[in-house]
Amino acid sequence: MLTLAFYGTMQNKDSRRTMALFPILLSSVLLAVVAQNPLCFITAPATIHVGVEETVTAQVLGATRPFKIALFFSLLEGIREVSERKEITLTEQNDYQALVKLKVDPTRYPDSVNKKKNIHPDFVQLVAESKDVFQQTQRAKIRLSSKKGYIFIQTDKPIYNPGENVNFRVFTLDNYLLPTDEVISIQIFNSRNVRVYSQDVQSAQILQKNIHIPDVEPAGLWKIVASFLKSPLSASSVEFDVRDYVLPSFEVKIEAPKPYLTLREESFSFTVSARYTYGKGISGIAYVRFGLNNEDGDRLYLIGTEKQTKIENGMADVSVLTADLQRAAENQNVSDIVGNYLYIAVTALEKASGQLEDTESTFVKIVDSPYVIDLSKTKQYFSPQSLFSILASVSYPDGTPVPNLRMRANITVKPVEETWTLKGFGNTLGEVMLSFQVPALARSMDIQVFAEGDDNKAVFGDVKMSANAVRATHKTYLTIELDRHFLAPDQSLTITFRDITPQGTARPTHIYYMILNKGRVLHLQRVQRTEVTSVSVDFSVDLVPSFRIVAYFFTIQPEGTTVVSDSVLVDVKDVCDGQIEIAPFSMHKPAQSVDVVVKTDMVSKVALAAVDTAVYILNKQHKLTPHKMFAYMNSYDLGCSVGGGKDHKSVLQDAGLTFICNCNMKNDGPYSNHKCNSKQKRQKRSLDKAFSKIVNRYKHPERKCCGDAIKPDRLKRSCEERVKKTTQASKTCRDVFYKCCKDAEVARRENYLNRIKNTYGRALSNEVENALEEGNLHIRSFFPQSWLWLILDTDESGLLKHSVITPDSITTWEIQAVRMSPTKGFCVAEPKPLKVEQDFFVSVKLPYSVKRNEQLEVKAVVYNYLKETLEVLVKMEKVEGLCTAGEDGVEQNVTVQGSSAVAVYFSVVPLITGNIPITVLAYSSTIRDKIQKQLKVVGEGELISLHSEYSLNANGDNFLEVKIESPPDTIPGEEITSISIKGGIMGESVENSLNLEGVDKLIALPTGCAEQAMVKMSPAIHSIRYLDTAGLWPSLKAGRRNEAISLIQDGYHRVLSYKKVDGSYGAFLSTPSSVWLTAFIAKELAQSKELISVEDSYIQEAMTYVISKQTESGTFTDPNPVLDRTMKGGIGNTEGDAAMTAFILIAMQHASKAYDTETDQPLRKAMEKARSYLEEELDDLNSPYDLAITAYALSLTSPTSKATIQALDKLMEMAICDEVKETCHWDTGRSGDSLDGSQANSASVETTAYALLYIISQGNNDTATSIAKWLTEQRKYGGGFRSTQDTVVALEALAKLSMQDKEMEQLDLTVQMRLQNGRKEKVHLNKHNALTQPSIEIENGGGMSVRVKGRGSGTLSIMHSYRSLKMPESFCDHFHLEVSLTGEVQYSAEEYEPIPADYYSYDSDEDLLQREESVDKLGWFDLRMRRKRQAPEDPEKETSLVYKVCLGKKTSEPTGMVIVDISLLSGLKPNIQDLENIAKGTEKYIDHYEIHQNKVYLYFNKVTEGKDCLLFGVEQIVPIGLVQPAAAVIYDYYNPERRCGVFYNAPQKNVMLSKLCDGAVCICAEGDCPKLQETFKITEQSARSSFACYSARVDYVYVVQIFSMTEDDVFIHYNSTVTKVLQLGWGR
After folding, report:
1. For helices 1075-1088 and 1040-1056, what crossing angle results, to 10°?
2. pLDDT in tens, 828-845
3. Residues 306, 289 share a domain
């Protein structure tokens, strides 16, 4: 409620006499006026909103009887009323004034009105009718806005990785901030502003949804936009950051006592803070670098100013001399550094864990003056003889307020040229108000405000402005004076109205004023004028976040009555209507129950969220905060100044009002824009490049080209060779690249010579090269990021209490709450921290996977945040299958100082495959902690899978013999066979196309390019159609259809990541557009329309691009073929243009559903030209693929034409039919697609699938069934075929046939299997379980017999998987591949230490138990060096390796998109920045990369003959000894059987990695094998056998004969035979 008080005083006798005479004089004048025409003044908002109640005020001046006025809104032209007509009566009882609410009715203002000619939809008019007041109807033009209410959007965090889900909420409110349930439109745009999601939904006051970000999405800002339906101006949006990141382990902050540096200061000092998110400090080292950032964000590194210092208890003090900064800048030709920002970058190393975290800052500005003075709240216009207030605020350059500062203002008044000086002190917010009486003759004022330091003589900052006198006739003015300009709860505001009139002129009897908030009039009042006319306003939530006071009076002049006015804006403390508060939390431990208590003062809904504060280290923007809420509320304020105006009419307009007045002041209509114009400078992104002298010569975009060029090439390629890899760049960029590369060569050479002179021939460091590699910050993480995403109801008292279990993360969570109350509305609570920590805990880091028999060093870090020192026993528990040094586990005693951490290392060797639990216990006498993580262990060699599928049919041959032979190179114990039996011909394809996990089985290949993205959409579309038609959804998992729809939606989002501005698509954004690919994507998007919301414009844009490539003859050409020349199925290997034209004709037919009859003419014309061409060419087609796809295209566009019908005979002549097997197919004549030759190549599958689609259209069901049988037998286990295209087309054809035959209706099939080991399995299939029958797994291979009985058909799919030490070499005569590693730290002979001999005796059990396993020299060096490591001088280099990948073709045969699949050695992870550089830099060595688990996929547009090499770095996650070899494969993506594989291993001599078991020294990798040792001389031959056979310490005894040994680049192969078994092992 708004509370006001009125008071006034008479100051002297003359004043009283004047006031006594004035009413008599004025009333006589007014009576004469009223007798003729009463003065009427009506105001309304300058902008009104459809469907929203607006406030209109009306007043009649000097009335002595009631007056009636009718008010309503109408269209700008005509008399059509668009609101209710309201009639008011102004009487003495209401002071002849009234406040009316009018609303533009949406039903009276339909959209169709906007389409009529001569109607201006952006405007309406306020109409006032009164026979008593106006001689004719009065109108005022008002801007009409569709904006209404409020929409707030909240995401569960502000930053996401590609591939993550975004949870978001939409809150919908009316104009009074009360919940409303309306239809809203939600649109989501990706980082390139392509709309990837659009849907109209009912808001239900709070709407919760989520969206998946494609894993190929480039970095950038995504945006969610929500608006009320048909109210686009009500749109609200929120952005979120998408980029590759991981949460930091600890937060590094730069804390300075002041955010500025002046050149008068000798040095700049600051503190580096490095603390875990739960508040504890780290101990380690800080590396600090400095630079300069200008206003545009361009960065110059100040080489030579680097610092290194210790971090103790989370703190480090750093100081840099100002002279050093200036000198470093001058060395790079920057003479004046004032105005730049000091760039500070800190890398912090935590000694115990070895973890690195980074931060950077540019908040320190180099200035002459440390203060920034803001006068934006000072009025630009003044009234002579009034009290004028200068409102100034002072801050540091970073925006932080400067409290209690001495302020001074100099005011020069013109034309009198007098100067006043005002002094005062600012408050705690840095604000000051300096007031003075303006002279009567003043016409303008020059104002200069100074901020002074402690010494009055030292003036540190100043700012200037000018103010002008209000233009007023007859020098009559009104000013509003305030005792404060900020109103807080429990405060009152005193408002003084001062009227200024020339001497002898009648003064007003009353002052009228109104209070406006968010464009609405809250209060309308008149107060009798006194000598000091004042009113008081109490704080009210209705005034939040700000309000305007508009005051005016009327004066009668000879030329007529006019309005004298003034206004002022008042800020109000941001508080909600009603309470919402999150109760503070005490400290909790992980996995502990916590009560989240939220207090409100009424029944409400509360939306909760919890976010790891580590997220806000990366991005603090975009979250929903109370500040954003109140800023959005203030968007409804229609004013465009802090008050006042150039004249009295402008005062009203600048306050956001329009008016009707039968006075001397005419309304010119609303401003062209109702909001103030504000220019906001947008900063460019900073450039993180080195060699500043070279790079700084260029501006964008050439600067990036130069920055890439000056990076050192680790393969030592010349600039001439490197520039050949920049063909995708512009000529200007290539020229800049080459010049900068050559300049960098010269700079390196000069630097090298200088360093030799200065170091007198000593070994040179890599200092200069380190300065070059600034790079982007890479951040690591192990924490969940958000949780508690719930909407809950309070109890009747408004209290919410919700119990949850805290996550296991040791961190600080920010708990957020948003209230939605039916009576108090919306409010965002101040968040509260929930700290989850332990004073004592142990952490363990493991790699994604290791191989069996590799030596793994498990690193456990013990953290002690207690004050006292602890003696801690750290134990790793013994577990089956994991070799450790002790029988019952391994123990180590360590001393952990207070507030510190100690690392403990355990060497283990996994002996079995699978998940092995690693359990580490740390305890002292008073405290303990235990942690368990799973170690994934895989077998040696490479996993190989062989697939086969058989058709099951009870009507034909119902007995089947299947052989599953084990290849001779199989590693024992690593063999498994999976058997799947499904009903119908769709088989596993249906279930696996409906969810993401299944799609990975459908096509087990990377999905990094645009065409591959469609694999998520196309199969799911056809499977949904099939299941809808067959009614089989009830037999599947509940919610599976929704999963499938989500999969299609995700595929849609993913493929739009590749969309270009003209609507076309290339395999990647960086590659030229492909006609074929654009048509393919348009076709699939059109087919998705029936299931998800797809933008028609995207399909139309794609087809416009395709049509533009059509020739006059009707054919289509592709100037930029897709990466793979055979990617287009058979198209790339056909002669002529028929196949391409037929494919695009099929796409155009599907895309036509995105057009209406008014816009489809270009498409129809193109289709007709293509169809005519194909009909003419049909007789000349000799390729099965050409004929099949052409026949299908014609069947879609002209199904009854002569050519379409004739195609059947010609197609069947080319068919290969087997009457015994009852199959038919078409062979493209290619070979080499299959390893075992049992299955056809990809092109044959695609050709046969197109033939099946055509034959289905011709109604030849018998032939179609034979074709379908052959197709199913080409399918792989999991439901897919060779690649994307054959899978998409084949599944479409099989689904169409299945829907036509209704094969599931009569299904009743029994399948009996007898396996080689005698095991029997029986499966019964019917409609209800046909698609959900679980698979059967058997160990090893063998064979089985299958018998089928009953009715219907089905499929039997078999996948035989094994591991082998041999790689496929079927195409090693075509592809060349080499993979090797080089370490950046090399060995020297003197680094080795004497190694104790392995010793244990057969005679002593004690010695046996205490023996230390043998490790070779290299292994001991590895382990000891790692255990000694605390803070290496260069931590990045010690744990880094470089992969060198060389590939090429050995023949001139064309090859399409090639992928190199590299399995990383255990314990390594790739350097993302290196991969980014070779994929997206000016030098382009790869077209794309993907990282999945421990694999790196490299995509190549084109592979040339000869050998081409590239490098990328890897870093060690966990030390691995005796590392096993890993595999790398090069293959043609669209014919993945065309592959060549190699094994590779670690370098022989490297600190990190060593080769498997060199020489006679082997360790635990030998498992249970006893060792042959010369520990004592055996005098009798039987001594060893007696010991072996009769000692309880020996498990098994074999006599083995070694026949031969061979060695390749990776493995040593022994040919051996067990000649005698002396003792079997336990359980064998």
Report:
1. 150
2. 999 999 988 878 888 888
3. yes
